[in-house]
Specification:
- This protein has 167 residues and is mainly alpha-helical.
- 45% of the residues lie in helices and 0% in strands.
- It contains 6 helices and no strands.
């Protein structure tokens, strides 16, 4: 048995110092994913018969970007990201999308074809997104001899028939 050579993790895609936040975002979340989500969401809106203006990939990108910013810039209420006082909230989110449109898109966001096949798995509604992200994440990083895997699980109160295994 041989000990593997020491290697450090590296990014597999090329980014230089002039790369913007959008460049990094699009390396991790490809445009094809945004197109897929917008198509599925629009199909769902048509099926429900709602008269809401259809979305497009750029708007889905804005919503996902806002969710990422909201995950580290916590405020007490969702509406606090769009305050009337200019010194409060988050200017980037406020300038990107209106509160009502963001709320509506988050409530109608759909990740799969509206017609679920009879033999579909329990995770049918997120399978396409998960497979796309798995492929993208594999392309983004290399293996390293010093990687850690966090095996802690968040407490879950509720019922779920999905079985989870750590690999």
């Amino acid at each position: 048995m041989t000990i593997p050579a020491e290697s450090s993790p590296s990014l597999l895609f090329n980014l230089n110092r002039s790369a913007t936040e959008l460049d990094v975002f699009l390396k991790i979340f490809p445009k094809s994913l945004m197109i897929w989500i917008s198509q599925c969401t629009n199909q769902r809106l048509e099926k429900l018969g709602q008269t809401i203006h259809p979305t497009d990939p750029s708007e889905i990108m804005l919503v996902l970007g806002c969710i990422l910013v909201m995950s580290y810039n916590k405020v007490p209420k969702f509406s606090h990201y769009w305050p009337s006082n200019p010194s409060l909230g988050n200017v980037a989110i406020k300038n990107a999308i209106s509160r009502d449109r963001c709320k509506m898109l988050l409530s109608k966001l759909y990740f799969a074809e509206p017609e679920k096949p009879e033999n579909a798995s329990k995770t049918y509604y997120i399978d396409e997104v998960v497979s796309c992200l798995k492929q993208t994440f594999k392309k983004c990083r290399s293996e390293s001899s010093y990687q850690s895997i966090d095996e802690s699980m968040a407490k879950f109160k509720g019922r779920s028939s999905l079985k989870q295994y750590m690999r």
